[in-house]
Write a structure and sequence with these properties.
Blueprint: H1 3-6, H2 13-29, H3 31-44, H4 47-58, H5 64-67, H6 75-78, E1 89-90, E2 96-99, E3 112-119, E4 122-123, H7 126-137, E5 151-153, E6 161-166, H8 168-175, E7 186-188, E8 191-195, H9 196-201, H10 210-225
Parallel strand pairs: 3-5, 3-6, 6-8
Antiparallel strand pairs: 1-4, 2-3, 7-8
Helix pairs in contact: 2-3, 2-4
This protein binds zinc ion (ZN).
Length: 264
Amino acid sequence: MHRRRQRPPGGPGSVLVPVRSMAAVHVRRRRTAALVTGGGLAGLGGLIVLVGLLAAFSGDEPARAPASSRPAAAEPRVQAPPDPLTPRSVRATGTLVAVPAEDSSTGPAGGLGFAVEVEKGIAMDRAAFGREVERTLLDRRGWTAGGAYSLRRADAEEASFRVTLASPDTTDRLCAPLATNGTYSCHQNGRAVLNAERWARGAEAYGRDLARYRQYMVNHEVGHALGKSHRECPGEGTRAPVMVQQTKGVAPCAPNPWPLESER
Ligand SMILES: [Zn+2]
């Protein structure tokens, strides 16, 4: 819009602009009006009018040349932004890095403290992982529902248990003697150990729904931290208790990432 003002007065633009403006106005009112206008302009003859009409049909922005360096408008919208919760790469180092609680961290002061840590070598936004764990554990559908448990995000030194994202090799080491086989997650020695490959790829029962599978991982392993044991699917078509080993499959139950009332 402002480009019109930038045109040098008296240049070819001063002719072209009224042509386009008139054409646009008349097209909006009535097609025949545009034709009449076009006929009148044709009477003027000459190359300027021809160029003006071509420009009018090519769009609203006559000053295209300076703007041609802009990327095509559709390009940026095609690519989805990367998921900050999906590791870009996973490498075993055996070094666990604490993810400190944030100013925004919540949970009652008297709650059971949980700390978050991520293995060095897992390339991802650790703070985002910490917030996701916190969001899941403090969700009103989670273990704190109905006041059954009281949880709060804490730093490592004051935590009752930890939620740890680890490479498959480190998961196996932290979980031993439980056999996680580079595939599963566990709770062992005060740690809910989440296998980073699982976290990244999910499990068959949840299909492409990584978000819900991740909620399941957190709630299931933290369920062990709260003293819960494994459950069986109670019957066809019902929601699986969160303490069912859903990574191994939930059929004939339906996948469910939240503790059932009967589990709390
Ligand atoms: Zn388990």
